[in-house]
Specification:
Blueprint lengths: L6 H11 L4 E5 L2 E4 H17 L7 E5 L4 H12 L3 E4 L6 H11 L4 E3 L4 E2 L2 E5 L5 H4 L16 E7 L7 E6 H5 L15 E4 L6 H11 L4 E4 L7 H11 L3 E5 H11 L8 E5 L5 H10 L5 E5 L9 E4 L15 E2 L3 E6 L12 E7 L5 E2 L3 H7 E6 L2 E14 L5 E6 L3 E4 L2 E4 H9 L4 E10 L5 E10 L8 H8 L11 E4 L13 H9 L1
Parallel strand pairs: 1-11, 3-4, 3-5, 5-7, 10-11, 12-13, 13-14, 26-27
Antiparallel strand pairs: 1-2, 6-7, 8-9, 9-19, 14-15, 15-16, 17-18, 18-21, 20-21, 21-22, 23-24, 25-26
Helix pairs in contact: 1-2, 2-3, 9-10
């Protein structure tokens, strides 16, 4: 598919060219592209009758299902954008998101209202039933630069932020000269949370190019389920957060057998876990994926290999994906030369339009920069990194994870990197424990080990860290956990660990 189109039009094009190809699999339901496109048009007519207009944002409180995807297509066909809300969330969180959206239409399964907002009810049905009596829906003209979806990310502040993302941002990495593993004959599980940008990676990466998306009903994909999906559905392309990848390697590294490519990211990679994967699957590409939701899905990729396991500072972030560029800048905003650390700024087709109904935050994070004699719009990631002499991007740490303790400036990422070099440590996270005024009191390190090293005590770990870190950087508190807590997005829950440290 060489010519990019808005998402719903891309699906229609495939439905016209290859109508019987399987677009979606959900339990026993197998949905062709023709059926999916026809159901999307029928839902578009229904949504239009409820008042959905071009430029609206529609809140979908539907469970993960083939029907949800068809309704999303219906929203897009109306010229509107959708946002996914987990119907199991507390009413207070749902209300706070709807307050940001000022959503004119809320679609769910349960009649009633949410603090005065009526819920339009769509009963559960198969997509085949939803596609009955098809008739073409005359969509308004939609461009690649129009809003397609709003992702909600809490980032480092804990406050949900609605990231308004365009059709172009979603489609830029896929198709001709795009990422490996997407298109006809390729199959990806859709297991990422509904409000997260990697939901789009798993779903629209295949549906915009003619591949198949297998919808996973569980909260998290687990090793046994992956084995079954590879065997039964032909899954060959997979995305996992770093924390889940580490878990899969620890529990059942053989579960990856049969994959053709694996994308892993969202957190700093563990060389030990990557090394164990490479020992077993040396010929199956495993890619380190990096990127904030504000630059939809991915910004850089790096195929990981044995040489990366001993790179100082950690496994590289890699090179930019299609439709994207990266600039590393100094504190004064000037470009940093190779090997000099600065803030990572992202430009290109993946950039969000901004934060929904928040022009102040949008103006703070999305800025204009001078590059090569011209002006570009860029997103300030808050991540620190550098380019090496070969143009490969390396991650250092978050700006907001740089702390001062007793007059010393510390990088929490450096502490984690040192701990990961201890053979027994399987996973770890360093957090700054703060008092009620936000002042850093001390550093806490939480770690887990494999079964053979379950006896690694905090005292023994402290001794080993003392050989790698200055005294002021050694965490005051250390605690071994069976497993580090995981957030809804499949990443280590640093906020929960911070609260644990204050107890």
């Amino acid at each position: 598919m060489s010519t990019r189109l808005p998402l719903h039009l891309a699906v229609r094009r495939i439905a016209s060219a290859n109508p019987d190809a399987i677009a979606l699999v959900h339990d026993t339901e197998r949905v062709s592209y023709r059926t999916l496109a026809e159901a999307g048009d029928n839902y578009a007519r229904l949504l239009s009758s409820w008042g959905v207009q071009q430029g609206d944002i529609v809140a979908l409180m539907l469970p993960r299902s083939a029907q949800l995807v068809a309704v999303q297509l219906g929203v897009l066909a109306c010229g509107a954008a959708y946002t996914g809300i987990d119907p199991r969330w507390p009413v207070s969180r749902v209300s706070s998101i709807l307050d940001q959206l000022d959503a004119p239409v809320v679609v769910g399964r349960t009649p009633g209202d949410i603090e005065g907002r009526p819920v339009r009810v769509i009963a559960p049905e198969s997509v085949v039933s939803a596609a009955a009596d098809p008739a073409p829906y005359n969509s308004p003209e939609v461009s690649l630069d129009d809003a397609a979806t709003v992702f909600f990310t809490s980032g480092t502040t804990g406050v949900s932020k609605g990231v308004v993302t365009t059709h172009r941002a979603v489609t830029r990495m896929f198709g001709t000269a795009g990422l490996d593993g997407f298109g006809p004959g390729h199959v990806t599980p859709q297991a990422a949370p509904l409000p997260w940008d990697m939901y789009a990676f798993e779903l629209w990466g295949q549906l915009s190019t003619g591949g198949t998306s297998v919808i996973v009903g569980e909260d998290h994909l687990m090793p046994r389920r992956l084995r079954a999906l590879i065997a039964d559905e032909g899954v060959d392309t997979l995305w996992l957060t770093t924390s889940l990848f580490n878990l899969f390697v620890d529990e059942d590294v053989e579960c990856f057998a049969g994959l053709k490519q694996l994308y892993v990211g969202g957190e700093k990679q563990s060389p030990a876990h990557v090394g164990r994967y490479l020992e077993r699957f040396a010929d199956v590409p495993i890619w380190n994926g990096y990127g904030p939701a504000e630059n939809c899905m991915l910004t850089t990729l790096h195929r990981m290999g044995p040489a990366d396991l001993s790179v100082p500072g950690g496994i590289p972030l890699g090179r930019i994906v299609p439709g994207t560029d990266v600039v590393v800048v100094r504190d004064d905003g000037s470009p940093a030369p190779a090997k000099e650390t600065g803030e990572i700024l992202v430009t290109g087709d993946g950039l969000a339009l901004g934060y929904v109904n928040d022009p102040v935050l949008t103006g703070t994070k999305f800025i204009e920069i001078e590059v090569d004699g011209g002006t570009r719009r860029a997103y300030r990631t808050g991540d620190m990194g550098l380019f090496d002499s070969e143009g490969v991007l390396h991650y250092r740490d978050r700006i907001d994870r740089q702390i001062k303790l007793n007059g010393n400036r510390l990088e929490l990422g450096d502490i984690e990197s040192a701990a990961r070099r201890v053979e027994a440590v399987r996973n770890c996270a360093a957090v700054a424990v703060r008092d009620d005024n936000g002042q850093v009191q001390h550093i806490a390190l939480y770690y887990s080990t494999d079964a053979d090293h379950a006896g690694l005590t905090p005292r023994e770990l402290r001794k080993q860290l003392a050989t790698m870190l200055p005294a002021y950087a050694i965490p005051t508190a250390m605690e071994r956990l069976d497993a580090l807590p995981i957030s809804a997005n499949g990443k280590v829950d640093l906020r929960a660990l911070g609260e644990r440290g204050r107890r």
